[in-house]
Structure formats: C-alpha cells, structure tokens
Amino acid sequence: MLTPKEIKKYIPLTEATFYIMAALVKPMHGYAVMQWVEDTSENTVKVGPGTLYGVFSNLEKEKLIEKVKDEERRKYYLLTAQGRNVLTEQMHRLEIMVSRGRKALREFTKDEQE
Amino acid sequence: MKQSQTTRKYRWFLPWQDELEENWLCQMANEGFHLVELKSFGRYYFRCGEPEEAIYRLDYQNSSKKDKNAYLQLFAESGWEYIGARSGWQYFRKNSTLEELGEIFTDTTSKVEKYQRQIGGLIIFIPIYVLLMMNIDYSPKTVIGEILKFLGFVIIVIFIMVSFKLAIRIDRLKKQNIKQ
Q: How many alpha carbons lie under 13 Å from residue A38 in its C-beta half-sphere?
C-alpha cells in the first residue's frame, strides 16, 4: 500500500494518464485503451500512440499498472491496488475542484444579476 | 510506364531538429519521393512515384527494446506505417487525407519526455569523455595524446550544445502549455 505522501507524488495526473488508468480497471491492450479514452471522454481527450506508450511505460515502472497477459504482439494491462489508491486520491481532488468551481460560478452569476 | 525506381539522398539533422526532419519528409512526399529505408551515415532511400499528402512523425526510443513488437503493433493499429529506425529515431508515416489523428504525441508531458529520453541517450558521452581524459594523463605531449584531447573537447562541446538546445525545446514546450 502507498502512504499518502507517496500517493501525492503522482498527483495531479495528466488527463491522458487519468483516463488510461480509469480504462485499466479491466484488462486492456494499448489500442483498445486509445479508443476507450476517445469514446468515454466524449472526444475531449485523444491519445496518440507515442503518448500512450510513454504513459504505459511510466505506470508499469511505478507499479500502478501491471501486465496481465502477453498475447502475440499485444500486451494487456490492469490497474494495481497502488494504482487504485492514486486514482482514488485524484478523484477526491477533482470532486473538491468541481464543487468549488460550481459554487464560484454561481456566486459570479448572482453578482452579475444584482 | 511504371515508375518504381529508388533514389538515394544524404542528409544530417541535429537532435533538436526533429520537426524540420518531419517537414522535409512531408515535402519530399509532396514531390513524389516516398521514404522506404534509412541507413547509417545519413542515407535515405526514396521510392519515386506519385505525389502524396503524407504525415511523417519521429519518436525517439533507445533501440534494443524487448517489447519492440508491442510498440510497433500499437502504432500500426493507430494507422502509422513503420519505416525504420536510425540512431534511436523511429520513423512513422500516415496518409494525411485520412480523418484520423495526425499526431503520435498528444500532450506536453509526453513531448517533453521524448526530449528527455534523448538527453538520457547522450549521457553515454560522459564516460567516453572521462576515458579519453584519463588517457591524456598517461601520455602527455604525444600526438595520440593531443588527438585524444581534441576528441574529448569535441565530444564535450557537442554534448553541452545538444543538451542546451534540447533544454530550450523542453522549456518552450512547457511555456506553450501554460498559454493553452
């Protein structure tokens, strides 16, 4: 398990890393992850093969994902428990940001109306 | 008459000029010269054919990768044709009329990491430099000693210049990121 300090080392995740980790709650290979990210991010995030390969290498080195299947030329990866810790912390921070941002925008519109 | 002859060209490019290299290859394709092979000493082999709208992209990966198959598979599935590699540079091509992503790197982090890998690749010059300098102590004022001293000097100048240029590129990428 990672300590809170170790988790903070990875935060904030880049958009690409965040979506890639979220994809890997199920075993998936690189190209499937690329498609998954494009679809589930509603086309807001696209990941090129160079970027994906780099993220996979970094995450594997940090043991946030692990290889679960080696199929001919395709490698399947899965999120590890440590990876889950990091993703959870990132979610927590994003939630705070979203709720804070909503409040801020609401106050801003109120001020405008007055 | 079918044109299927190949032509050879020589060219050098420096480690921070990868975008110039990509543009040059696109321009060649526009003129009907399509890269088929890369060889050492700056040799390029082109197939002469019809002009095409092509995108060329370069990645930098140290060779002797164990998982090169998986790496190439990923690029192939994303529509990138692998042409070959030289001194760590991996050459890819895609037809630019396709409505697909025309980039292999899609964020600043991964672009910066590409240049950092290059600086990492240059680190091997340091032990070479140290070895050359060690030799000088044992052979002062000989012709070989002077040659080694000169070589060591050239290597360290190249190392510093390339690292400096790459650092500038990294810095510029990071600044662009803030502006976006």
A: 15
